[in-house]
């Protein structure tokens, strides 16, 4: 999860790990759910979430939560959006999402080593 200010400057990066989950759609849904919870807990009231999981984002924006695989997660996300009018989500293709792509590549290069001491925000800002 990456939090950027309106100018695109990276403010904070938070990693999330889901043991035993290997389905990309489930992971994308869980990461978005965690990002929402995390931002709300930090007091953010206006947030535009971006992601490259078009299937997940389309279902959320259409409030289409009938999905055996991720339905319960989508219901929770849609509920957050209903309660907090300042939250939104939009699709950004991988080719246009340089920040997420850089973080994903860096995280993969560190796996399975611990990333806890790595300052992702500084690293990203140095490359933007």
TrEMBL record:
Highest taxon, organism lineage: Eukaryota
UniProt domain RNase H type-1: residue ranges: 1-107
GO molecular function: nucleic acid binding; RNA-DNA hybrid ribonuclease activity
Name assigned to this protein: RNase H type-1 domain-containing protein
């Amino acid at each position: 999860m990456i939090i950027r200010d309106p100018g695109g400057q990276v403010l904070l990066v938070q990693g999330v790990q889901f043991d035993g989950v290997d389905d990309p759609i489930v992971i994308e849904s869980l990461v978005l759910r965690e990002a929402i919870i995390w931002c709300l807990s930090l007091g953010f009231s206006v947030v535009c979430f971006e992601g490259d999981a078009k299937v997940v984002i389309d279902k959320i924006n259409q409030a289409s939560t009938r999905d055996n695989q991720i339905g319960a997660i989508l219901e929770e996300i849609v509920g957050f959006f209903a309660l907090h009018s300042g939250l939104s989500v939009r699709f950004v293709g991988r080719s246009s999402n340089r920040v997420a792509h850089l973080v994903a590549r860096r995280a993969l290069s560190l796996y399975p080593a611990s990333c806890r001491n790595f300052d992702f925000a500084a690293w990203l800002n140095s490359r933007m």
